[in-house]
Design goal:
6% strand; single chain
């Protein structure tokens, strides 16, 4: 059976027979084990925490020199550009 992820990728789920082989392998390997429901519930989520104020994706047209400048500042250039725009809004807010 195939399932589709949120990103649109398809994954094949194991059949019942394949699942039994996988579980037998887990039992046979002394260094591998399946987590209990209690252990699984104690795991912390992986990745960036959800933001209380998420940014919105948009399309914007910028002059080549502005884009080159910010991209030239390295990783995090979009955040720096956002900070510059926030400063402008604060300075010109009425």
């Amino acid at each position: 059976m195939q399932i589709k992820s949120k990103s649109g990728r398809f994954f094949d789920l194991p059949t019942d027979t394949e699942e039994a082989v996988i579980n037998a392998g887990i039992v046979a390997d002394s260094e591998t084990y399946e987590l209990s429901d209690a252990q699984f519930s104690q795991l912390k989520p992986v990745g960036r925490p959800k933001s209380d104020n998420p940014k919105l994706p948009i399309n914007i047209r910028l002059s080549p020199e502005v884009l080159a400048y910010f991209r030239g500042t390295g990783k995090g250039w979009q955040t720096r550009m956002d900070n510059v725009l926030k400063e402008y809004v604060q300075a010109h807010h009425r």
